[in-house]
Design goal:
By secondary structure, this protein is of the alpha/beta class. It folds into two domains: 18-167, Glucose Oxidase, domain 1 (3-Layer(bba) Sandwich), CATH 3.50.30; 178-395, Rossmann fold. It contains eleven helices and 20 strands. The strands form three sheets. Strands 10, 11, 12, 13, 14, 15, 16, 17, 18, 19 and 20 form an eleven-stranded mixed sheet that branches. The termini are far apart.
């Protein structure tokens, strides 16, 4: 006698047949059904979109994307595969990956693996075959929000269970992620070419290209864990300090702000990018705030207020500095006059700070420009020149 299958048995049988099913669930209950991409399972994070048409490998391996489910607005992803040379860190950092049309064929002379294979090997749960334009418009309208990607057996959780998991995930506001992306031990890159001095780099999620460009400007680059103290930094007797890019809320990094204030009071030249720009802003006495949906991509226009030049730049930030863009202001923390040096042309967001009375400046975007463009690479030269001038001034007893 044959037993009649129960609904539970039928559901299990269907799950065994179709493990490629996947769903993207947003915290407001919006759902997008698609196909599994990369590893199978579940992942939670903040859903954001990146507008670059190229450079998906640099995006995936940028530590600033930790905790975020990244949606690529370009529809065709994966065609050039993956290689070891374009890694911006030792691993893939995104919490999840969302694409419309994954390439069925990898075709590039530098390719060593497929993107799908690397995602699966790294345990990155993704989804494909959904209307990424619709998701992008939704996020632009309502703002970045918590999300989850469910595939494999997790795709067959009830919609209510999936939504409950998403809504139980961590908010990005108030979240400190520096400890999860920073190096565990200090290490040094030797200067390339004419030696200028040494720079202490606080690794808050630094990219490989940044360290390379600092070394190529003649710096011995001392890369330090984010847990380092001001005393430990000063023991190295560096000629300058650099704060890197990184994920999380700058408002949850008061310890790094205090470290920066200590070194600024001692006159140590400073350059910060991205998260390092936000921390300089807070050290100077400005507030930071969360952007509705952030800036992510390699095609963001920024105005250099001094030259009037418009630079096309690489961005990855969900927070920004609240500082007046129409005038020079005084630092509430006692560091003198400060001007906003760069402004985003899409929404007038502060994209750079320049201190007029101390040797310190920062930009919100990524001047190492991996995977491009390279309009802002000159900022590493500006940093080198500032350090040289500072050393000469000290030697002359000024």
């Amino acid at each position: 006698m044959t037993e009649t299958p129960t609904p539970v048995d039928e559901q299990a049988a269907q799950a065994a047949v179709d493990l490629d099913r996947a769903v993207l669930v947003l915290e407001d209950g919006t759902r997008y059904e698609g196909r599994a991409y990369g590893a199978r399972g579940r992942t939670l994070g903040e859903a954001v979109f990146a507008t670059g048409m190229t450079g998906y490998q640099e995006t995936l391996t940028d530590p600033s994307y930790a905790g975020q489910i990244v949606l690529m607005t370009a529809p065709h992803i994966g065609n050039t595969g993956m290689n070891d040379d374009d890694m911006e860190s030792a691993k893939i950092w995104v919490a999840g990956f969302v694409v419309r049309d994954p390439s069925r064929v990898v075709s590039n002379f530098r390719s060593q693996r497929s993107l799908d294979d690397d995602l699966a090997a790294a345990g990155i749960v993704g989804i494909s075959r959904i209307d990424t334009r619709a998701v992008t418009r939704h996020i632009r309208s309502l703002g970045a929000m918590r999300a989850g990607v469910f595939s494999g057996e997790d795709a067959y959780l009830s919609p209510g269970e999936q939504l409950e998991l998403v809504q139980g995930g961590e908010q990005m506001t108030g979240r400190n992620l520096s400890g999860s992306v920073s190096t565990g031990e200090r290490y040094t890159l030797d200067a390339v070419g004419e030696h200028v001095g040494s720079v202490a780099v606080l690794d808050l999620g630094v990219k490989t290209s940044t360290l390379k460009y600092l070394a190529e400007r003649g710096f011995d680059v001392h890369v330090l864990p984010q847990s380092v103290t001001a005393e430990e930094v000063l023991e190295l007797a560096p000629d300058a300090l650099f704060f890197s890019n990184g994920p999380g809320d700058p408002g949850a990094s008061d310890r790094h702000v205090d470290l920066l204030r200590t070194t600024l009071r001692l006159g140590l030249p400073y350059f910060g990018i991205c998260f390092g720009n936000q921390l300089l802003g807070r050290a100077l006495g400005f507030e930071t705030y969360k952007l509705p949906f952030g800036h992510r991509g390699i095609n963001q226009p920024v105005l250099d207020k001094e030259t009037g030049r418009v630079e096309i730049t690489a961005h990855n930030h969900g927070f920004a500095v609240a500082a007046p863009t129409d005038r020079v202001s005084d630092s509430a923390a006692g560091f003198g006059r400060v001007e906003v040096s760069h402004v985003g042309l899409n929404d007038d967001v502060v994209e750079g700070l320049n201190c007029l009375d101390i040797p310190a400046f920062s930009v919100q975007y990524h001047p190492e420009s991996a995977a491009g463009p390279h309009d802002a690479n000159y900022l590493f030269d500006r940093f080198r020149d500032m350090v040289i001038a500072s050393k000469q001034s000290k030697e002359n007893g000024e």
